[in-house]
């Protein structure tokens, strides 16, 4: 009733309609969201932009906390394409993937996809961002990074979240469940173009910020280049090891050796490939490494001797980390079952009820299972394991093929030809009992002897 009231008496004025529905009381957050959504569908962006700057402070950022944690840190443009491509799939049409599927492509008018100027003292007030036409090699739009009064010690820095940002760590009422979207070992690519009217050449470099021992962000730099006016550059960067700390944001930094003002256009930013990472308690401590796991178990002990101690009272619990962008990889972990019905590791996890898992099962069995519309046993073998002993479990997924080993001995080699899960996170699983683990390792699959695609691109530096 309140939504109808606001729509009728707001007379298509976005600001007035939201004022009416908010001041009417009751469930103001949901009501405002519904009214805003309907007006956006009906009248488009011009109606929203006709009044105050509603979009700028939000910068397209969205949080979608679910058991599929890799989808949690996202933006309005990304989710728009998800919805559009669901409709296209139902209609039997090919998906839309701007700029060859780049994660940040800026192809929707006005979209900034979470990028905002950083607010730290070295860069506060130096940069602005704006979606503009042109300056793209593979598309029609780009993100203009306008900078003013660059000088030694004063840089322009813009970034977008890849994990729970500091302002959302202690979110009231709702806890943000999320995994990072970017990991060590993945290959980042980005394209930049310097405006032809720039008066000075500037230094441009990529950076990430990762949480540290005190849960404060630390900047880690990637490759850099000198941009002459009118020049373009494509970066390639394999992110290096961060000691188990999660990556919270990725961005671009602009610097100059003398006072400078101008503009650089960010064409795209994207990354792909399987991570090369060991997920464990960082040597320096901190708590955000635990937040990178989506906790789907009854108890995930914070002060246990081992980094991962899982307790599940009934049913199967999962501790999940990663994204659906992980396709072919190997996951391994030394799992120590203690009075459990089953315990093990998961691959291509897409939530609490979609995954592959290699399990040690009560009764002296090893089992390879697939959870999708119920649980199916893909393979099973006798394996006389013991409570409170540690077993090195490894599960490799490549296309529809799954290979599993225990303590270095292959136990299963299976081809899943029935609706295979083609991408997803990793997990530790525990069914009705307790299990422990020191580290979860995720590795890319080797293409050939001593070779990995993209080998030789630059690693991470830190300040």
TrEMBL record:
One Pfam family linked to the record: ADP_ribosyl_GH
InterPro entries per UniProt: Ribosyl_crysJ1 (IPR005502), Ribosyl_crysJ1_sf (IPR036705)
Superkingdom of origin organism: Bacteria
Stretches of the chain forming a coiled coil according to its record: none
Record-given protein name: Large exoproteins involved in heme utilization or adhesion
Protein's organism: uncultured Rubrobacteraceae bacterium
């Amino acid at each position: 009733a309140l939504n109808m009231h606001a729509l009728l008496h707001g007379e298509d004025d976005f600001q007035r309609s939201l004022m009416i529905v908010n001041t009417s009381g009751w469930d103001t957050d949901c009501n405002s969201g519904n009214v805003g959504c309907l007006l956006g569908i009906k009248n488009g962006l011009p109606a929203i932009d006709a009044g105050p700057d509603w979009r700028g402070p939000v910068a397209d950022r969205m949080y979608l906390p679910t058991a599929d944690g890799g989808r949690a840190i996202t933006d309005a443009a990304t989710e728009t394409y998800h919805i559009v491509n669901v409709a296209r799939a139902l209609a039997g049409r090919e998906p839309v993937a701007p700029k060859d599927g780049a994660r940040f492509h800026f192809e929707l008018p006005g979209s900034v996809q979470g990028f905002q100027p950083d607010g730290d003292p070295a860069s506060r007030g130096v940069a602005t961002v704006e979606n503009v036409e042109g300056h793209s090699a593979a598309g029609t739009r780009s993100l203009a990074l306008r900078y003013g009064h660059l000088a030694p010690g004063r840089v322009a820095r813009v970034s977008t979240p890849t994990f729970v940002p500091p302002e959302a760590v202690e979110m009231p009422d709702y806890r943000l469940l999320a995994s990072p979207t970017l990991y060590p070992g993945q290959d980042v690519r980005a394209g930049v173009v310097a405006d032809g009217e720039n008066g000075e050449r500037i230094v441009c470099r990529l950076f990430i910020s990762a949480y540290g021992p005190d849960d404060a962000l630390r900047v880690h730099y990637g490759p850099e280049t000198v941009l002459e006016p009118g020049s373009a550059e494509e970066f390639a960067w394999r992110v290096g090891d961060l000691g188990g700390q999660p990556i919270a944001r990725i961005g671009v930094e602009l610097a100059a050796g003398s006072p400078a003002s101008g503009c650089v256009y960010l064409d795209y930013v994207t990354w792909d490939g399987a991570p090369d990472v060991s997920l464990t308690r960082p040597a320096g401590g901190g708590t955000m490494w635990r937040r990178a796991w989506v906790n789907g178990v009854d108890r995930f002990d914070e002060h246990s001797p081992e980094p991962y101690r899982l307790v599940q009272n009934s049913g199967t619990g999962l501790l999940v980390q990663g994204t659906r962008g992980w396709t072919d990889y190997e996951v391994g972990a030394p799992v120590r079952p203690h009075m459990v019905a089953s315990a093990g590791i998961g691959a291509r996890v897409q939530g609490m009820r979609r995954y592959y898992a290699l399990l040690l099962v009560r009764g002296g069995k090893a089992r390879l299972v697939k959870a999708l519309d119920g649980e199916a046993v893909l393979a099973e073998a006798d394996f006389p394991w013991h409570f409170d002993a540690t077993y090195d479990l490894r599960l490799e997924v490549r296309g529809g093929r799954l290979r599993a080993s225990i303590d270095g001995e292959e136990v299963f080699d299976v081809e899943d030809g029935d609706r295979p899960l083609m991408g997803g996170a990793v997990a530790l699983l525990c069914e009705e009992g307790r299990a422990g683990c020191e580290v979860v390792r995720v590795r890319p699959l080797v293409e050939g002897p001593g070779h990995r695609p993209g080998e030789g691109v630059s690693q991470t530096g830190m300040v």
